[in-house]
Write a structure and sequence with these properties.
Elements (H helix, E strand, L loop, with lengths): L8 H31 L9 E7 L1 H4 L9 H11 L4 E7 L5 H6 L1 H5 L5 E5 L2 H5 L4 H17 L3 E5 L9 H18 L2 E3 L22 H27 L1
Parallel strand pairs: 1-2, 1-3, 3-4, 4-5
Helix pairs in contact: 3-9, 7-8
Length: 236
């Protein structure tokens, strides 16, 4: 994949904004098509709560059986621990943060207690200005806070060939917004997996089932913290 060069980033803003708007419309259409599938997967009466994994192909499990993606692995682990929480995989491959923002209302209609927000990798790969990502994440987190949804925010890092200024601005977004909105932060969602050929598919980007086990290792303790927050809020 040819990534945009750093000296093109400012110029690309005019090219990207219309594309982002088109993607918002497409994301809303995708959400409408997928809604029945996820509606059938809502928490059962005996479940304690609902967790939604809102993300892109790294959540959807591109290239794998859906049972091998991290949301499905997470639910199996929770239930093995005696924790009856339903985990819905709401990953959409190719989605940017603008797409996640566009379909947030549909996600909230499922009434989640916890959302794992994993988005932004495609923003970076497409050279979308970091400020666009920041604004989208800020808006999503603001809405989730208003709806009293506990959030686990999956941090991302970007390839260095986009230039130091871009990668630094990109990396700062996640911890700063997690602090602002009191979200539970995973500093780097692909820690221990990125750039490891043994844990990634042939494209070098998407994890294998073994790679997703490592991702689940990172997500699980944050989910336990989120569950504790939900229980504390219910007890008030």
């Amino acid at each position: 994949m040819d990534l945009p060069q750093p000296d093109r980033i400012p110029i690309m803003t005019k090219e990207i904004v219309p594309a982002v708007r088109r993607w918002c419309v497409l994301a809303a259409m995708i959400a409408g098509l997928l809604a029945p599938r996820f509606a059938r997967a809502q928490a059962a009466p005996g479940d304690e709560g609902l967790i939604i994994a809102l993300g892109d192909s790294l959540t959807a499990g591109l290239g794998l059986n859906e049972l091998d993606a991290w949301p499905e692995q997470l639910e199996r682990r929770l239930r093995a621990q005696g924790l009856r929480w339903k985990v819905i995989n709401a990953g959409v491959s190719g989605e940017t943060s603008s797409g996640a923002r566009a379909r947030l209302a549909w996600v909230l209609a499922l009434k989640p207690d916890i959302i794992v927000l994993e988005t932004g990798a495609n923003d970076g790969l497409r050279g979308i200005p970091p400020q666009v990502l920041r604004e989208n994440l800020d808006a999503i987190l603001t809405t989730l806070g208003e709806q009293r949804v506990t959030v686990v925010l999956a941090g991302m890092q970007m390839l260095r060939n986009l230039g130091q200024a871009y990668t630094t601005a990109f990396a700062r977004i996640y911890p700063e917004l997690a602090q602002k909105h009191q979200a539970i932060l995973i500093p780097f969602f692909l820690e221990g997996v990125a750039a490891n050929p043994a844990l990634n598919q042939n494209d070098g980007i998407h994890p294998t089932p073994a790679g997703y086990r490592v991702v689940t290792d990172l997500v699980q303790p944050r989910i336990l913290e989120a569950i504790a927050r939900v229980r504390a809020t219910r007890a008030r």
